[in-house]
Structure formats: structure tokens, C-alpha cells
Design goal:
single chain, 102 residues, mainly alpha, 2 helices
Length: 102
């Protein structure tokens, strides 16, 4: 009796997720016994791609890091100069303040 919770023919199909996984693993195991290890071949291929692309990514990240550092240094210089100027202006004694300057 189908109560409709699992959907029609859920899990009975040849291409359900569980059956597909079992078939794939049996296929890889059979090829491995024959001396063809697809997982190792794919891993070596991906490793070669990583070796080729690593210098490019390192250069791009270096440029962004250097630029960010330069911007932060300039920003701190500007902020500190502005703060010093503001403090100097606010602590400057004016004759109308009633203080006697020596």
C-alpha cells in the first residue's frame, strides 16, 4: 500500500541514488583490479593543474596584499596628521581666552 509519503516507486528504480553509488563503486573496483586506478589518474591530473595555476594565484594575491598594505599605511599617515593638527588647534591658547602667554 502506497501512502504517498515516499513518492511513487521511490528506491525501486535501477538509477536511484543508492543503486547508482553501488554500480559506480563496483565499476571503480573492477578497473582497480585490472590495474587502471581512475582515482589516482584524476588526482594526478588535478595535481598538475594546481602546480600550473599556483604561481598565477600567488602573484595576484601578492599584488592585492601589497596594495592593501600601501593603502593602510597612507590612511594611517593621513589620520594621524589630521589628529595631530586637530589636537594642536584645540590646545592652542588664544588671547581672548584670558590666559597670559609667556
Amino acid at each position: 500500500m502506497d501512502n504517498g509519503l515516499n513518492g511513487p516507486n521511490q528506491g525501486n528504480s535501477l538509477f536511484s541514488n543508492k543503486n547508482f553509488l553501488i554500480i559506480t563503486l563496483i565499476f571503480l573496483l573492477t578497473l582497480s583490479f585490472l590495474g587502471i586506478n581512475l582515482i589516482t589518474l584524476v588526482g594526478n591530473f588535478l595535481q598538475q593543474i594546481v602546480f600550473l595555476l599556483t604561481p598565477l594565484f600567488n602573484q595576484v594575491l601578492f599584488i592585492f596584499g601589497y596594495t592593501t598594505g600601501a593603502v593602510i599605511n597612507k590612511t594611517t599617515d593621513i589620520v594621524s596628521d589630521t589628529a595631530k593638527g586637530t589636537i594642536d588647534i584645540s590646545t592652542e591658547k588664544k588671547p581672548e581666552d584670558g590666559h597670559v602667554n609667556n
